[in-house]
Amino acid sequence: MTDTAGAPRPLVALHGVGKTFDGGLVALDGFDLTVREGEFVSLLGPSGCGKTTVLRLVAGLDAPTSGVIERDGAAGTGGVEGGLSFVFQDATLMPWASVAANVHLPLRIAGVPMRTARPRIDAMLDLVGLAGFADALPHQLSGGMRMRAAIARALVTRPRLLLMDEPFAALDEITRFRLNDDLLASVAATGCTVMFVTHSIYESAYLSTRIAVMGCRPGRVVADIPVNVAPHLRDESFRRDARFLAAAQASSAALRDAMAGAAREAAA
Predict the structure, then answer these.
(1) Which terminus of the chain, N or C, has fewer Cβ atoms within 10 Å?
(2) Does the global pTM surpass 0.85?
């Protein structure tokens, strides 16, 4: 779906969004961001700048104190088809349930029985590289495999919007690189739009179509950096591509400038 200018239609847009928590902590102030259908947008910024808060607001888990969040139709809801899914920092699998049962969970909540859901579950496990592990328990899996199961659970509802909060932060670099590639393949296969939180400049440059760099708290977007290579064309060689390096350097410079500005304000 496109807008009148021919560009993909906005799936979610945040306009002047602020969030103040009980106790007076101002997490976001004047936050503006538009995410269009088919984009992979990374939120990159220092710890405590409000990246996770943005995802929670988009998901409807928290409400903004000020500003407006616009969602395109079903993208603002959960459900069996076309809504949103959330992958948290921890895989949050049910330890007593098999991988298949964990992936089935959102469908079960929506009233879809296992016998009906099983073909879709198996397809998702195959997509994330867990074919043959449907009957395994979470403690029998590596950390990377548990995160694959969490991603399969998020994708099984065929969401339009996938929210991911540092899903690979706890993994070793080799596993992280492999899962970056598998995530791009999964996103290409399902066609979902992604909002992805990370602290890694290089991860954001590798995965994203756009990088929204956030400054220190209260969080706001200080730079919006395009990465002009289609995600499905990226592989290990892209990490040496001039466009990858340019995006990483621009993100690093924006972060450095934002943090220097915050330090000057604090010293004033």
Answers:
(1) C
(2) yes
Give the residue from 158, 177, 197 where a domain finishes: 158
33 in Cβ contact with 7 (< 8 Å): no
Q: Give me the residue label for tokens 């393949």.
A: 185
Residues 6+ apart with CB under 8 A from 82: 74, 75, 158, 159, 160
Residues 120 and 196 in one domain: no
Q: Amino acid identity of 237?
A: S
C-alpha closest to that of 164 among 131, 128, 126, 195: 195
Query: What pLDDT, in 10s, does the model give residues 2-20?
Result: 555 567 788 999 999 999 9
Nearest in space to 77 (alpha carbons), one of 85, 66, 68, 89: 85
Quote the domain boundaries for residue 38: 10-78+160-267
β-sheet with 161-165: strand ranges across? 84-87, 161-165, 193-198, 40-44, 210-214, 221-226
Secondary structure, 3-state, 146-203: HHHHHHHHHHCCCCCEEEEECCCCCCCHHHHHHHHHHHHHHHHHHCCEEEEEECCHHH
